[in-house]
Amino acid sequence: MHYKTIKDLVTEQLREGILSGKFAKPGEEFTLHDLAGRYKCSLTPIREALRTLEAEGLVVCNRHKPVKVSELEPDQIEKVFEVRMLLECHAAALATREIKETTLRNLEENIRQQQICLSGRNHQRWLQLNYEFHNQIYESASQPVLFELIAMLRARTAHYVRTYTFLLDRFAVAVTEHKEILNAILQKDGNRACRATKRHLDNLAKSLADFLKTKRDMSDLVKDNKSGFIRNRKLQKAKTHHTQDRMIQLEGKDS
Fold first, then answer.
1. What is the assigned CATH class of domain 74-213?
2. Which CATH architecture has domain 6-69?
3. Which of 40, 91, 225, 236 is most exposed, with the fewest beta carbons within 10 Å of its own?
4. pTM of this structure
């Protein structure tokens, strides 16, 4: 029997907390002592867990600074998805030859459940179904190393996909794309499965990059407005002080 260490447990819980956005979102910071208090343990397993998550690209650790949840720029998102497309398209094509009948039935039921989520607007459940849908396909390629690489890259973009999908309500589009992928696999057409997977990821990557660019531009606009407001306040304050000084000088002359 394999017993999990404190480091293993902290790593799993923190990874899930970051990927789900429940613990921290991209760009947010926290300290080692925050985590030690949260998980009721010493700093040693915390440091070990963070080294693992940093290697996975989920956090950025700098000495004497708070730990930061990784942020990807729009161009970085596109580059990650370029590699994802290569690996996931290959896995989908391999799956058409290796996939079991029971897995095909599971995928059909998965899509049926996705459609139920559309009408019920159950975001969290849909995200889980989406994750399981792709996982079952990639596992069916029967290439453990390939699956491991795909899982690592999917983790790099998971928290962005969750936020984007929730905000832009991409469910209906994604379900249609999932059906296209599954139909290609059912027909054992590797080339078609590859094309459908590429189209699905390409659409997501472009939309996600556009979303992040818009979000960044809005953030910059807010910062500029705030800076302008502060400058105007300072100018107004300086003018007020100048006016008051002039009035005092005039009063002095009158007396």
1. mainly alpha
2. Orthogonal Bundle (1.10)
3. 40
4. 0.70
